[in-house]
């Protein structure tokens, strides 16, 4: 992680995400962005319960170390060095989605009937996240669940190494065979052999022919064991 | 104990009135380790006789004792199994250099264990030099060598084995991380060995081996019964299969050509345990001619969808062992329940999460479990990743699966809503119904099991020796109730729990049989010293502090993964380790933290 410092001279992203009473307020003091655009939600939207509402004052530069992310949560502080700005945006998106999901769940549970608020999908567009929560509801703060959810996010179900390896190899096989997959192809359960160009490659893991000339075909008679 | 050294007194009687001669005849028939343990505690004479006649020892964690302690007690040992890294290492959770080096053991074996014929190292670090020492000192007598999920060695080390271990009947390398220089090791094996019965380098990435050497082994070794290899084109094995006349088990291979070319492949007549890597729906029919003979089917690395599973499984009425991914689906489980009445072991692993890589039908839920319980009454082992679950399905298992000795359930975290949580009542019913249960794993999510449910686990698992608990309970109170039960629990693994260090320490002190604890994800104390409440003689406590690891995620991108801290604690007669890597820290109560 430390060796991955991606500080570019023209970009000094610095995000401090602070939590107050369950609200997550993002405070994005971004330096000169260069070619990176500030995402919409950072600047303009005020989203209930996961508000990354900015003081609309625009961009502030601070004197923190470049690409450092500080998160205050539940009484503890985490500092991460060398986070690229894209990752920070992803993190903030996840936070806003998670908090929005919590809020939506609480709403549904409270009203106990299908509400008109749209169900939040896994990767909502920024726009829908904002409009979905336009109408304020009495916020319920599921603090315990949030902390356990956080625990779950930190500790995803671990994957078995042998299967991980298999999935990697399977992916490589498909890429080798079908480097330009048709996006409308639904299942890839059976390998599409149609695009088999190169027959076998090292990646598909076939045995190579042995370079060593074959010796006698009979096993050497084992020397007598005393 | 006083012993009469009088040479005229040839038959000694032990306190229970049995002569040594009789005991010496009876003792070799006692195999179960727990029985042997009991026998050795009767009196010194019985302890000595046990030590002389014990054939096999399993050391569940290599750091619980030392090589010379083993030698002092069991110098005539014929078979040894040693385990190193925690089980979590199979899930990439343990630093590679954690430990579990075989070197001190190999050196002791080379010097002193003259009767040792069978060696099994599991999750340990093996060096080429270790293999060289072993081959040189024990090569003439070694019959079984298993390097099971090991790492640290290369094919150069295997060269020594191939050259010197000519009596080797079993060479097992499955899932080991081996640095591959060439395929010469297999060639050495092929020209030097004629007694091989089990050859396994499945799930290694060895690709430079030659199928001609495989053929040679098949021709020379008339008792070759089990062969599991890495990815080798199946069509290249057209010489191997006919040569392996008595082959019963084959796994591995690879399908890279047009499906219809495989219809000409003929398999050995006794083949009844099979697993073909990358087998898809178009190649599957090559198995049909002998599917009714199959007792074991490994579909973990096949490319079948739910429908394919149904088509294949219904042709396997004699199936006893099935391993596959959750692409089998509830529908596949229903077919299994109808068709495979002799099923004893079922393992359903988690498929890939990537869109389009697995079947939409490929989820397992309460529906499949209920069908399975009712249909497969002989089930002894069930490990399953489910996407949904109910109490009723667990009750079914408790009602029908009377032979179940090993049950593992993981609730996947993709679905937000689960039909029926918490699972308190279902878990209780399962534990009460499955009286033979020895191993139990339950991995849920917050809300999956209340404190009451956790207390049920403590109350109703009298014979369970190993448990993995993930995201169970709600508070320390639940854990403390749990720890009042589980009278047989020797090894406890916990993950993602909300329990405090203090509660963990109290739990350890209360569980009467506990000798090994592993925890990842817990509520750390402010000082980090609450764990010391479990400090006591012969109890080693180790921490792996939180780490950040760069890994490749599912789509091959580099991500930084946070690894929360681990606690590992175990009884040891050998004192604290002396070979800690940087990532592991011993907790020593004598040293001010």
TrEMBL record, chain A:
Residues 62-97 form the Tify domain. It is found in: Nucleus. One of its GO terms (cellular component) is nucleus. Keywords: Jasmonic acid signaling pathway, Nucleus. One of its GO terms (biological process) is regulation of jasmonic acid mediated signaling pathway. Residues 1-12 have a biased composition (Basic and acidic residues). The keyword Nucleus applies. The keyword Flavoprotein does not apply. Residues 1-20, 174-226 are annotated as: Disordered. Residues 194-203 have a biased composition (Polar residues). Repressor of jasmonate responses. Belongs to the TIFY/JAZ family. The jas domain is required for interaction with COI1. This is Protein TIFY. It comes from Theobroma cacao. The lineage of its organism: Eukaryota, Viridiplantae, Streptophyta, Embryophyta, Tracheophyta.
TrEMBL record, chain B:
GO terms for cellular component: SCF ubiquitin ligase complex. One of its GO terms (biological process) is SCF-dependent proteasomal ubiquitin-dependent protein catabolic process. Gene3D superfamilies: 1.20.1280.50, Ribonuclease Inhibitor. It comes from the Eukaryota. It holds the Pfam family Transp_inhibit. Residues 76-121 form the Transport inhibitor response domain. Residues 16-56 form the COI1 F-box domain. This is RNI-like superfamily protein. It comes from Theobroma cacao.
């Amino acid at each position: 992680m430390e060796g991955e410092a991606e500080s570019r001279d023209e970009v000094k992203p610095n995000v401090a995400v602070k939590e107050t009473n369950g609200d997550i307020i993002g405070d994005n003091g971004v330096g000169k962005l260069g070619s990176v655009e500030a995402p919409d939600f950072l600047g303009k939207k005020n989203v209930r319960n996961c508000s990354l509402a900015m003081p609309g004052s625009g961009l502030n530069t601070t004197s923190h170390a470049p690409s450092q992310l500080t998160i205050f949560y539940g009484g503890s502080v985490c500092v991460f060095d060398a986070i690229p700005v894209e990752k920070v945006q992803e993190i903030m998106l996840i936070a806003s989605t998670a908090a929005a999901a919590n809020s939506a769940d609480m709403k549904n549970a409270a009203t106990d009937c299908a509400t008109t608020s749209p169900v939040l999908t896994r990767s909502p567009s920024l726009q829908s996240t904002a409009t979905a929560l336009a109408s304020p509801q009495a916020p319920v703060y599921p603090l315990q669940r949030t902390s356990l959810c956080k625990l779950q996010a930190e500790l995803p179900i671990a994957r078995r190494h042998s299967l991980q390896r298999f999935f990697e190899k399977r992916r490589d096989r498909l890429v080798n065979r079908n480097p330009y997959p048709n996006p409308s192809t639904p299942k890839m359960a059976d390998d599409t052999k149609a695009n088999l160009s190169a027959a076998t490659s090292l990646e598909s893991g076939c045995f190579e022919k042995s370079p060593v000339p074959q010796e006698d075909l009979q096993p050497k008679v084992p020397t007598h064991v005393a | 104990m006083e012993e009469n050294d009088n040479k005229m007194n040839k038959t000694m009687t032990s306190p229970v009135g049995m002569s040594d001669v009789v005991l010496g005849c009876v003792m070799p028939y006692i195999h179960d380790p727990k029985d042997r343990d009991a026998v050795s505690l009767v009196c010194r004479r019985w302890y000595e006789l046990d030590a002389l006649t014990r054939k096999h020892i399993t050391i569940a964690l290599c750091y619980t004792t030392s090589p010379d302690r083993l030698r002092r007690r069991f110098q005539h040992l014929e078979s040894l199994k040693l385990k190193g890294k925690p089980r979590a290492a199979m899930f990439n959770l343990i630093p590679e250099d954690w430990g579990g080096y075989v070197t001190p053991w190999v050196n002791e074996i080379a010097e002193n264990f003259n009767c040792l014929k069978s060696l099994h190292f599991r999750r340990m670090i093996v060096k080429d030099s270790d293999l060289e020492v072993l081959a040189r000192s024990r090569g003439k007598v070694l019959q079984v060598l298993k390097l099971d999920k090991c790492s640290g060695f290369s094919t150069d080390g295997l060269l020594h084995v191939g050259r010197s271990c000519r009596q080797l009947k079993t060479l097992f390398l499955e899932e080991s991380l081996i640095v591959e220089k060439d395929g010469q090791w297999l060639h050495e094996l092929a020209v030097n060995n004629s007694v091989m019965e089990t050859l396994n380098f499945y799930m290694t990435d060895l690709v430079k081996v030659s199928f001609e050497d495989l053929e040679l082994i098949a021709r020379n070794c008339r008792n070759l019964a089990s062969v599991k290899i890495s990815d080798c084109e199946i069509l290249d094995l057209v010489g191997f299969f006919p040569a392996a006349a008595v082959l019963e088990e084959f796994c591995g291979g690879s399908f890279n050509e047009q499906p219809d070319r495989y219809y000409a492949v003929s398999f050995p007549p006794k083949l009844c345990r099979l697993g073909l890597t990358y087998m898809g729906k178009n190649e599957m029919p090559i198995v049909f001619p002998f599917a009714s003979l199959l007792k074991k089917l490994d579909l973990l690395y096949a490319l079948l969808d739910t429908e394919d599973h149904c088509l294949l499984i219904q042709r396997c009425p004699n199936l006893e062992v099935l391993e596959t991914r959750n692409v089998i689906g509830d529908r596949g489980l229903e077919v299994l329940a109808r068709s495979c009445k002799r099923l004893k072991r079922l393992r359903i692993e988690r498929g890939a999460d990537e869109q389009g890589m697995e079947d939409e039908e490929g989820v397992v839920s309460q529906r499949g479990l209920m069908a399975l319980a009712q249909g497969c009454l002989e089930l002894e082992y069930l490990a399953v990743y489910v996407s949904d679950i109910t109490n009723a399905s667990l009750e079914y298992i408790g009602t029908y699966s009377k032979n179940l000795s090993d049950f593992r359930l993981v609730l996947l975290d993709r679905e937000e809503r689960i039909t029926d949580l918490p699972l308190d009542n279902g878990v209780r019913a399962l534990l009460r119904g499955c009286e033979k249960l020895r191993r139990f794993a339950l991995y849920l999510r917050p809300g999956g099991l209340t404190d009451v449910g956790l207390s049920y686990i403590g109350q109703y698992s009298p014979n369970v020796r190993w448990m993995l608990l993930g995201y169970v309970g709600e508070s320390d109170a639940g854990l403390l109730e749990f720890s009042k039960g589980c009278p047989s629990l020797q090894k406890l693994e916990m993950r993602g729990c909300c329990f405090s260090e203090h509660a963990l320490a109290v739990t350890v002190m209360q569980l009467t049989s506990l000798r090994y604890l592993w925890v990842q994800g817990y509520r750390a104390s402010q000082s980090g010293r609450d764990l010391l409440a479990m400090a006591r003689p012969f109890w080693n406590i180790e921490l792996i502090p939180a780490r950040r690891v760069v890994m490749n995620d599912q789509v091959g991108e580099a991500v930084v993964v946070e690894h929360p801290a681990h606690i590992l604690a175990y009884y040891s007669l050998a004192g604290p380790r002396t070979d800690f890597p940087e990532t592991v820290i011993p907790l020593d109560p004598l040293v001010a933290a």
